[in-house]
Amino acid sequence: MLKTYEEKRNNIKDEVLLIGNSVVEALETSLKTLKSDDVSALKEIDLSVKKLSNKSNEIDNLIVTALALYSPEAKDLREMVSFLKITNELIRAASNVKGFIKIFRKAYSDDLNTSTILEFTIPLHKSALLSLRTAMSMIEETNDNHTEEKYGRVMVEDSKADDLYAMVEKNILKLITKNLELSKEYFDVLSSLRRLARTSDRASSIASLALFAQVGGDITQS
Fold first, then answer.
1. 43: which of 25, 81, 169, 220 lies 20 to 30 Å off by Cα?
2. Mean pLDDT, residues 177-193 taken together
C-alpha cells in the first residue's frame, strides 16, 4: 500500500489503542482501590464516556476516509473493518466500567457484608482487567501464533468472569434473604458487578475482531 495509507493506518491504530488504554487504566486504578479497601477513592477515577465516544466517531470517520481513498485489500481491509467495530466495543466497555465504578461506590458500605463482596469482586475485577488488557495487546500483535494464544487467554478469562459472577450472584442473594432491609444496596452491588462481567464480554468481542484482522476467518462477537 502507499506510504500515506500506512501513515493513516498507524494513526488510526494509535487512536484505537488510546481509547482502549484509557479504559484499561480506569480498571487498573479501580482494582487498586478495591485491594486497599478504599472504595471512596473510586470517585477520583476520571473516565469520560462522552469524550471517548467523540474520539470514537473521529476514528470511524478516519477509517471511512481511508477505505474510500485507498481501497485496501485482504488483510488491510480486514483490519480497517475490525477497527470500525472495535471502537464500538470499546465505548460499550467504557460505559460498563463507568457504570461499575459509579454504582459500586454508591452502594458499598460497612452495613453490608463487605468481606463476602470483596472476596468475589476482586477476582472478577482481575479477570475483566486481564481480558481487556490482553485483547488490546492483540491489536499490536504481528505474529499469528501469538495472536491465537492471546485470543485463547481472553476466552479463558471471559469464562472465568462469568463463573465468578454466577458465584457472587448466588452469595449476594443469600445475603439479601438474611438482610432484607439492605436488599436495594445488595442489588445495586450486584448490578455493578454485572457491568464488570460485561466488560469481559466486550473484551472477548474485541479479541475476536483482532483475531479476524490478523488471521482472517469469520467475525464472532458476543
1. 169
2. 95
